[in-house]
Automatic annotation (TrEMBL), chain A:
Residues 11-250 form the ABC transporter domain. This is Cell division ATP-binding protein FtsE. Belongs to the ABC transporter superfamily. It holds the Pfam family NIL. It comes from Mangrovicoccus algicola.
Automatic annotation (TrEMBL), chain B:
GO terms for biological process: D-methionine transmembrane transport. Keywords: Cell membrane, Membrane, Transmembrane, Transmembrane helix, Transport. PANTHER family: ABC TRANSPORTER PERMEASE, D-METHIONINE TRANSPORT SYSTEM PERMEASE PROTEIN METI-RELATED. Residues 13-204 form the ABC transmembrane type-1 domain. Gene3D superfamilies: MetI-like. It is a multi-pass membrane protein. The chain crosses the membrane at residues 17-39, 51-76, 82-105, 146-168, 188-211. It holds the Pfam family BPD_transp_1. The keyword Aminoacyl-tRNA synthetase does not apply. Belongs to the binding-protein-dependent transport system permease family. CysTW subfamily. It is found in: Cell membrane. One of its GO terms (cellular component) is plasma membrane. This is ABC transporter permease.
């Protein structure tokens, strides 16, 4: 598939809008969406239900048509494609679904073979490719089973094998892990990451779980009320969220929260008498694993009390969040020390 | 019971089976495309054609609202045209088939509408044509429902076939009326009823057995 000559993107949304008319009222689902999805990357779109993310995703394979703007896949305009042209584009775009959408009347092998049969691939080659794909997703022992006999994770593996059958360049994931338990989610995400790496497949996924994006996406777009409110590299979005919606999505994921007994006693201004300043430190990049607090403690002769903290990885980069308290009068000094070493600090309040 | 009577019962049983079988086969062959079209031509569906759907729906309802005994008599000219005669067992197949087609079409329409719309979406996303979606997704997925629908049709047609005596069609119903009722032979009537009950039971059991065989939706023990 050739790429868009102007943007180099695998998928490009240009000024995309979508409105529905129902019962005489016009409902705007999407408005002025510009987004370029880099080839070979895993890009995530996150938003609440009703934010328009599903509509946006379904425009990539023409299940929905934009009412304004342009959607291109590999340089081909999907919105205006009809009939055979549209079906040809669809064979270059695989899709997996939240509820798997497997045929209950076909075995694992039969389900994976379906897109090949539809594309008119000869029977012998269909059988061979379906078998390879079933092995690729680790289900060779279940090849002759029916979907009703499989677990959710196994069903989604069948869904992934089926989506890959026609050798697409792009894979769309519509809340593919939302119906799975956390452990199964991890194995499915790992499979998607492997496929992305091995086949150079461009993956565009929508989700309402930030944790899913943290684990595999390299780029994130946040959608709210039919508009993209923030987008960028996953690491930047996670460490420096600008939009309130992004922050609220992140709260449950990277949110290191204060223990209740401190939070209850905390006030915004320093009280009279001795008190301690509560500081949030965000460790970024290479410094995230440095023993900075110990160094600071030694250098400033400062007593640091650690209240809560976590270090996690976004992509392969570490990212830490730490809540500490120091004697209120030494607070500015401590923050200056950390700021000059490339960490971000924020005063949360004071405890008497 | 005389040997003569037994031969008559055997022949009548055969005639009923013959009428019902032919009417079911032709009814299913015509009802499958009609029912599929009814399901797929609704507004916003695969072959969206709301107006045609509406008209076809009215025709189907009209045929189904005519009581069978009236239909048999009302279409005698048509029966004569198709079968060459309007009297006899073969001629009786015509009204039975005409009644079976819209009935089976509705049953198939319902079975197809039960198929999860997510499957249609998945097939569209694969680049399937509407005909491929019907042949490879909708009908295979609706097969358990279609099988049960056809079973219901067979049972109804066994009942309908008792009325074709009105135009000289034979079979169990006709035997029961002419011998059991008009000639006051309660033993014949009793035998006819017993044979009909057995026939319906068998049809129902076989239909359910096939439906279970083709239904892969529920997990089952696959043996050790």
């Amino acid at each position: 598939m050739q790429r868009d000559s102007t943007t180099g993107a695998a998928i490009a949304f240009e000024g995309v809008g979508k409105s529905f008319t129902s019962k005489g009222r016009t409902v705007t689902a999407l408005e002025g969406v510009d987004l370029a999805v880099a080839p070979g990357a895993i890009t995530g779109i996150i938003g609440r239900s009703g934010a328009g993310k599903s509509t946006l995703l379904r425009m990539v394979n023409g299940l929905e048509r934009p009412s304004a703007g342009r959607v291109t896949v590999g340089g081909r305009d999907v919105g205006t494609a009809r009939g055979a042209t549209l079906r040809e584009i669809r064979r270059d775009v695989g899709m997996i679904f939240q509820h798997f959408n497997l045929l209950s009347s076909r075995t694992v092998l039969g389900n994976v073979a379906l897109p090949l049969e539809i594309a008119g691939v000869p029977a012998a080659e269909t059988a061979r490719r379906a078998k390879d794909l079933v092995e690729r997703v680790g289900l060779e022992t279940l090849a002759d089973r029916y979907p009703a006999e499989l677990s959710g994770g196994q069903k989604q593996r069948v869904g992934i094998a089926r989506a890959l059958a026609t050798g697409p360049k792009v894979l769309l994931s519509d809340e593919a892990t939302s119906a799975l338990d956390p452990e199964t989610t991890q194995t499915v995400l790992r499979l998607l990451a492997d496929i992305n790496r091995d086949l150079g497949l461009t993956i565009l996924m929508i989700t309402h779980e930030m944790a899913v994006l943290r684990d595999i996406a390299s780029h994130v777009a946040v959608i709210e009320g039919g508009r993209i409110v923030e987008e960028g590299a996953t690491y930047d979005i996670f460490t420096r969220p600008a939009h309130p919606t992004t922050r609220s999505f992140l709260a449950g994921v990277t949110g290191v929260t204060l223990p209740q007994f401190i939070a209850a006693r905390m006030q915004l201004d320093p009280p009279a008498g001795p008190s301690r300043e509560v500081i949030r430190i965000t460790f970024l990049g290479a410094n995230a694993t440095d023993p900075l607090l110990a160094e600071m403690s030694a250098a400033l002769g400062l007593e640091v009390n650690i209240l809560a903290g976590a270090i996690e990885e976004i992509g392969a980069q570490p990212f830490g969040n730490l809540l500490i308290s120091v004697a209120a009068e030494r607070g500015p000094e401590a923050r200056h020390y950390l700021d000059t070493r490339g960490q971000r600090t924020e005063v949360l309040g004071y405890v008497g | 019971m005389s040997a003569n009577l037994i031969a008559m019962l055997a022949e009548a049983t055969w005639q009923t089976l013959y009428m019902v079988a032919v009417a079911t086969v032709i009814g299913a062959l015509c009802g499958l495309p009609v029912g599929t079209f009814l399901a797929c031509s609704r507004k916003g569906e695969l072959l969206s054609a709301p107006l045609v759907n509406k008209v076809l729906g009215i025709v189907v309802n009209a045929t189904r609202s005519v009581p069978f005994i009236i239909l048999v008599v009302a279409i005698i000219p048509f029966t004569r045209m198709v079968a060459g005669t309007s009297i006899g067992t073969t001629a009786a197949i015509v009204p039975l088939t005409i009644a079976a087609i819209p009935f089976i079409a509705r049953l198939i329409e319902n079975a197809i509408r039960e198929v999860d719309s997510g499957l249609i979406e998945a097939a569209r996303a694969m680049g399937a044509t509407p005909l491929q979606i019907i042949a490879k997704v909708l009908i295979p997925e609706a097969l358990p429902g279609i099988t049960l629908g056809l079973t219901l049709a067979v049972v109804s047609l066994i009942g309908y076939s008792a009325m074709v005596g009105a135009v000289g069609g034979e079979g169990l119903g006709d035997l029961g009326i002419r011998y059991g009722y008009q000639r006051f032979m309660p033993d014949v009537m009793a035998m006819v009823v017993v044979i009909l009950i057995v026939m319906v039971q068998l049809a129902q059991s076989i239909g359910e057995w096939i439906a279970r065989k083709v239904d892969k939706r529920a997990p089952r023990n696959r043996g050790a």
